Amino acid sequence: MTSDSPVPAHPVDPLPLDGVTVVAVEQAVSAPFATRQLADLGARVIKVERPDGGDFARAYDTTAHGLASHFVWANRGKESIALDLKDPRGLEVLHELLAGADVFVQNLAQGAAARLGLDSASLCERYPRLVAVDISGYGSEGPYAHKRAYDMLVQCEAGLVSVTGTPEQPVKAGIPAADIAAAMYAFSGVLAALLRRGTTGRGGRVEVSMLDALAEWMGHPLHHTMHGGEQPVRTGLAHAVIAPYDAYPTADGDRVLLSVQNDREWRRLAEQVLERPELAEDPAYATNAARTRGRKKTDAVVAEALARLGADEAVERLEAAGIACARLNSVARLAQHPQLAARDRWREVGSPAGPLRALLPPIGLPGGAAPHMGAVPALGEHTEALLRALGMTGAQITTLRRDGVVA
């Protein structure tokens, strides 16, 4: 190569799931959110929906320019085919799709997939290279197997609600924590099974239950209770064994959360933020044990100081003193968060209602192709194209539409 030869461009790595086809009979949040992760990483995801309305999450609300916010969040980048799986012709179409698929995901009501022959055991026997995922509320066996399992119900059964809230009032998490937990374990389970298939040539079953997933996330309070004998108390935004650690009102009506992790930090807080240097040596405040015993007095001292400051000034002082802090933001403020803007985390995705803002996936793959952030599909938007790709004629498709088998 001569000195004036052009330097070859570094090849861009493809998305890791390019060439992987996923077929999903999915609804609500857990399975759709799992398959959206796969789509973001380059997989082709074919979403199978009922002809009479599709995934019922489509009708949860109309806040996203007329579309349901849950559906928009969990279903971008997919192709939608509307099939009546109770009709043998619709089920046959699904099997034709599965014959060319790498992954199948379902979260139908317990027993429904098995009645259709779509449970993971049946499918893996028929398609040995297929990774087949069953997502359920409580698992396939046991006394709760057929119990209805919505996110809030599983949050209650898993004990999450018992450790979330104030001392007076337990509350559920403000996001579908059980659904998200199950989705992310299903997602990672698929990746692990595909990796294993690369060695063995065989797919295999993946089973995830919402209760199992959320019970794992309850690890700290669970082990604290099992091994220590007492359940951690609900403390709202405070910390059970650290003080000060809470959100305090500021002069402009905002709230700022701060956390003092050790006595050196307390000294800096007292001197530089509270402007009460004597508190650094006062036995009632000098150690974390003393501050926690006198939590009400500790909180009162901090609250009095922050109440004289605007939120901006409070954060500036706390950061200058090396004290961990955060604004207690609203969801609207999250949408305008300066850190997300500075890191260029926002994109637009297409939808039947026009472009919608969406965050880039959290998994970054520097040097590779950009994440696939395709459009949110309309119900049955890809039905005809998928049927034609399977070799069906226009007349055959017309007959299936007339009979309500597809939409």
User: Helical proportion?
Assistant: 25-40%
Amount of beta strand: 5-15%
Which structural category fits the helices and strands? Answer: alpha/beta
Q: What is the molecular shape?
A: elongated
| Rounded average pLDDT | 96
Strand segment count: 11
End-to-end Cα distance: 59 Å
Strand order of the largest sheet: 3-2-1-4-5-6
Radius of gyration from CA coordinates: 26 Å
How many separate helices? Answer: 17
Main β sheet profile? 6 strands, parallel
Task: Please provide the ordered H/E string of secondary-structure elements.
Answer: EHEHEHEHHEHHEHHEEHHHHEHHEEHH
Low-confidence stretches: none
What would you note in describing this structure?
The protein is of the alpha/beta class. 38% of the residues lie in helices and 13% in strands. It contains 17 helices and 11 strands. It has helices at 30-40, 69-74, 88-99, 112-115, 120-126, 151-157, 177-200, 210-217, 219-228, 263-273, 288-293, 295-306, 311-320, 331-335, 338-342, 383-389, 394-402; strands at residues 21-25, 44-49, 78-82, 103-106, 131-136, 204-209, 245-249, 255-259, 324-327, 346-349, 356-359. It has a 6-stranded parallel sheet with strand order 3-2-1-4-5-6, sandwiched between helices. The chain has a 3-stranded antiparallel sheet with strand order 7-8-9, with helices on one face. A two-stranded antiparallel ribbon has the order 10-11. Helix 2 links the parallel strand 2 (44-49) and strand 3 (78-82). Helix 1 (30-40) crosses helix 7 (177-200) and helix 7 (177-200) packs across helix 8 (210-217). The chain is elongated.
